Amino acid sequence: GAVVSQHPSWVICKSGTSVKIECRSLDFQATTMFWYRQFPKQSLMLMATSNEGSKATYEQGVEKDKFLINHASLTLSTLTVTSAHPEDSSFYICSARDDRSSYNEQFFGPGTRLTVL
Amino acid sequence: AQSVAQPEDQVNVAEGNPLTVKCTYSVSGNPYLFWYVQYPNRGLQFLLKYITGDNLVKGSYGFEAEFNKSQTSFHLKKPSALVSDSALYFCAVRAVTGGFKTIFGAGTRLFVKA
CB within 10 Å: which end of chain B, N or C, has fewer? Predict the structure, then answer.
């Protein structure tokens, strides 16, 4: 299957700083990518849909100014957590929709664990 | 709106016994259904999917699931559980329309006892 990478795999930062997480589709193009967050022992919650060349679509309750999404190319989407606080500590997972797939196949990245001190 | 329900927070089963992890869904139109497994501090691993065709879907590691349209269910099964199957299992649904979003159930933790 296709591969999606995330960088970094984990990050620790101080409160008030911004953190950028990258999601890359390594062997396919992805016009659409998705960002999820997962709190400990909980499910994945969809945060936003990232669209190449246009603005991201955020789910209800997700602060767009807090979680900046940029989808600058067909293989890269970035999520920037701005002015991070301890409550933003979470596991962030992206997925990428394979443009070639007739049924919108999506592949998930390995996740990024963010810890805000 | 689409949704997924996993009614059991936890399932306990003895090694060698059959296991079932339940999932029901709600979606407009035809669904795409998925099962994923997650080990501690790891990302999701794909197990199997139903897109169309045969209602019984076979996937990785001996798992299978049966799509039941009338009951809107997609229960995950395995004939003989292994201790190494202990993990967190997520059912997910994607609507054919609606922006290709994948919505996850709350997850079911499976404990397989030796």
Answer: C
Q: Tell the residue number behind the tokens 């709350």, with chain if given.
A: B106
- Structural tokens at position B26: 């709600």
Query: Phi and psi of A88, rounded to 5°?
Result: -85, -10
Q: Which residue in A99, A49, A104 sits closest to A79, CA to CA?
A: A49
Q: Express each pLDDT in A68-88 by its tens digit.
A: 999 989 999 999 999 999 999
pLDDT band for position B97 (50/70/90)?
A: low
Q: Testing the interface with B: which of A6, A44, A60, A89 to mutate, by most B Cβ within 10 A?
A: A44
Which of A49, A93, A103 has the CB atom closest to B99's CB atom?
A49
Helix (H, G, I), strand (E, B) or coil at B24: strand
The residue type found at A117 is L
